[in-house]
Amino acid sequence: MSQATAPLLETRGLTKVYGRFTALEPTDVTIHEGSIHGFLGKNGAGKSTLVQLLAGSVMPTAGQVLFRGQDITSLPLARRREMGIHLLSQHAQVVADLSVAENLVLPGYPRKGPFLDRRAMRRQAQELLDRYALRFPVDALAGSLSAPDQRRLSIVRTLMDQGALAMLDEPTTALSQGERESLFEWIRGLNEEGQTFVFISHFNSEIQAICTNVTVLRDGRVVADGEDPRAMTSAEISELVVGDKVQEFVRTRRPATRERVVVDGLVSDGVGPVSFTVGEGEILGLVGLPESGAQETARALAGLRPTQAGTVTVDGRVLRAGHVRDAIAGGVAYLTNDRIGEGIVGALTIREMLRLGNWPTRGPLVDDGEVSRTYDRYHSRLEFRVSSSRQPIEELSGGNQQKILLGRLLALEPKLLVLDEPTLGVDVATKEEVHRLVDELTANGMSVILLAYDTDEMVRMVDRVITFSDGTPSGQLTGDEITADGIIARLNHAPTELAPASA
């Protein structure tokens, strides 16, 4: 990493207020030229607000932003980009109707005379993909890529911009450990060449691995600025983030009392046949690499994928395969891993989002009183940090959006809750809150299917694990067999017959 030198960007008393809600208290932060400066904090702590103010996508209520000593507070986003300040937000930024190659070289297309040099464009794009170890074809439409691959594409494009300051807002979301390490190596190389970064993350280990210094925010305030995270323990950093020692939640496994869900011979577009059961009060983990069949099976259960054979039965009721409404009516609720693309509807308020698809009525009209009561009930239970029930959900942090989506599913009163990466992109404190909520739900009899790439999370939370490989189950783990090594060992096993949940 390059040694930090003169200030590149500074804030002085930078403040953002929405009505009666203060998103960012007066803040003084200094980002030095040649540094990799980490921003760390819980969801809703003010990290995203701060980087939006630095990028110019949001204007401050008070205070200043200085770039190389120049006051740029009033300059808009486009002007700051011209000066070399770039923000990669938490959400993939690709042009869906352009190819991978076109996205990577946008806007500086190589030309041969007055014409676009497509051969050179494809060659440049392939060199970038090879250097970052990305395997999708350069001619594929960006919109055809999975959500994680779109994010990887946008990360590479931002890093190639060679701006004075590249701000990466949770860039490792949906990346495997190997892809994270590759990204870190790439960032370090650019940093050695003089590139300055702001790196926003929820993970202490990432901040310690990549950052030269760190700013920690809590409840809209800076509680530490310029500290060297490599000189601190993870516990010390966590205490700064949450204001107290973090108690990691480890769930006590409990046997299922009876079978609630029976999946029998399910086949869905090349995945299967898959058969398993889920007991009442049980958390069943489905684990597999991308396209292994784990996520595909979960989405088929929720009616989000067509099926060609097999049945899904919940409490004796056979559900119509491939029908979301029938799955919901039968007691199945699904939390997507793509919060922005499939989860929230940005134009809706929080109270509207909580009852989306499940509007209470009084006669021909929406029962506004029941909508308000739903908000009050889940605001109290889930403790999301918002200015009011009528705040647009798109203004919330990722962790608070995730709590709203969980509240919406709980309002459906499901029997089976399918959670696809429920703690993806949330801070350590919110992660523990989600784990405790899920444990409470299962203690009261709800059945849960959990998908998570984080094997440690799987080990801490589930009663039983089914691993998938090549579209079918490859193994099952119970009790003391559920370890990170045990899960990894079974991912490449041959298909296996699975025993039912113990009663």
Automatic annotation (TrEMBL):
Gene3D superfamilies: P-loop containing nucleotide triphosphate hydrolases (3.40.50.300). The keyword Cell membrane applies. It holds the Pfam family ABC_tran. One of its GO terms (molecular function) is ATP binding. The keyword Transport applies. Coiled coil: none annotated. It comes from the Bacteria. Keywords: ATP-binding, Cell membrane, Membrane, Nucleotide-binding, Repeat, Sugar transport, Translocase, Transport. InterPro entries: AAA+_ATPase (IPR003593), ABC_carbohydrate_import_ATPase (IPR050107), ABC_transporter-like_ATP-bd (IPR003439), ABC_transporter-like_CS (IPR017871), P-loop_NTPase (IPR027417). Residues 9-244, 250-495 form the ABC transporter domain. SMART domains: AAA. CDD domains: ABC_Carb_Monos_II (cd03215). PANTHER family: CARBOHYDRATE TRANSPORT ATP-BINDING PROTEIN MG119-RELATED, D-ALLOSE IMPORT ATP-BINDING PROTEIN ALSA-RELATED. This is Monosaccharide ABC transporter ATP-binding protein, CUT2 family. It comes from Auraticoccus monumenti.
